[in-house]
């Protein structure tokens, strides 16, 4: 049964739904940034990557700010509804609201949840790509360190002598 609300609670609800919709709008900007980040990493374009990371950081700051507001509004609404904050999802809130508020809250919550899943997937992809590039760089560094500093071996006499390297990768012949 939909909740009956007074004018103050209706105004609070409109503000709450507006905040959720605004947060979804901010999250909607993130996939494009993550796609640019992926291209910059794949192309090893440090300038583009730096620019993209700065843009991503700015957006994250905006999202954190609106998320704090959403949490405050969520707490206020849990008090109005007499429910625990932990168990009160946007879908459950929507289920107790009169129309058109219920539809708006449900749509905004579903959009937000879908965007968050999409962003998490893109982040996992980018993390894997970055980790792969780091492994390649680490492998190259290790290779060049070995070439530059030949292995040293203790001989039977206890004397430490460097192993001669020829600069050839596989053997002294190839």
Would you write up a description of this structure?
- With 174 residues, the protein is mainly alpha-helical.
- Helices cover 72% and strands 3% of the residues.
- It has a two-stranded antiparallel ribbon with strand order 1-2.
- Helix 1 (7-42) packs antiparallel against helix 2 (46-81) and helix 1 (7-42) packs parallel to helix 4 (101-148).
- The chain is elongated, with a radius of gyration of 28 Å.
- The mean pLDDT is 85.
How is the topology of this model organized?
Blueprint: H1 7-42, H2 46-81, H3 90-95, H4 101-148, E1 152-154, E2 160-162
Antiparallel strand pairs: 1-2
Helix pairs in contact: 1-2, 1-4
Question: What tags apply to this protein structure?
Answer:
174 residues; 4 helices; 72% helix; mainly alpha
Q: What's the quick description here?
A:
By secondary structure, the chain is mainly α.
- Uncertain runs are none
What coarse outline follows from CA principal-axis ratios?
Answer: elongated
Instruction: Give the tally of β-strands.
Output: 2
In helices, the fraction of residues equals over 70%
State the oligomer: single chain
Following the backbone from N to C, one meets helices and strands in this order, namely HHHHEE
N/C terminus separation: 81 Å
Largest sheet: 2 strands, antiparallel
- Average of per-residue pLDDT values: 85
Residues in β-strands, percent: under 5%
Structural class: mainly alpha
Strand order of the largest sheet: 1-2
Instruction: Count the DSSP helices.
Output: 4
Radius of gyration: 28 Å
């Amino acid at each position: 049964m939909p909740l009956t609300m007074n004018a103050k609670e209706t105004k609070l609800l409109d503000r709450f739904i507006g905040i959720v919709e605004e947060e979804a709008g901010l999250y909607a900007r993130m996939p494009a940034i993550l796609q640019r980040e992926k291209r910059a990493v794949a192309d090893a374009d440090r300038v583009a990557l730096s620019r993209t990371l700065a843009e991503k950081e700015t957006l994250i700051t905006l999202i954190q700010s609106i998320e704090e507001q959403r949490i405050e509004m969520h707490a206020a609404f849990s008090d109005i509804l007499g429910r625990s904050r932990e168990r009160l999802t946007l879908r459950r809130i929507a289920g107790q609201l009169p129309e058109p508020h219920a539809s708006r809250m449900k749509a905004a919550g579903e959009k937000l949840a879908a965007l968050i899943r999409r962003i998490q997937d893109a982040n996992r992809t980018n993390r894997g790509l970055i980790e792969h590039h780091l492994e390649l760089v680490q492998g190259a560094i290790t290779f060049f360190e070995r070439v530059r500093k030949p292995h040293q071996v203790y001989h039977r006499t206890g004397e430490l002598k460097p192993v001669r390297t020829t600069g050839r990768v596989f053997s002294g012949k190839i």
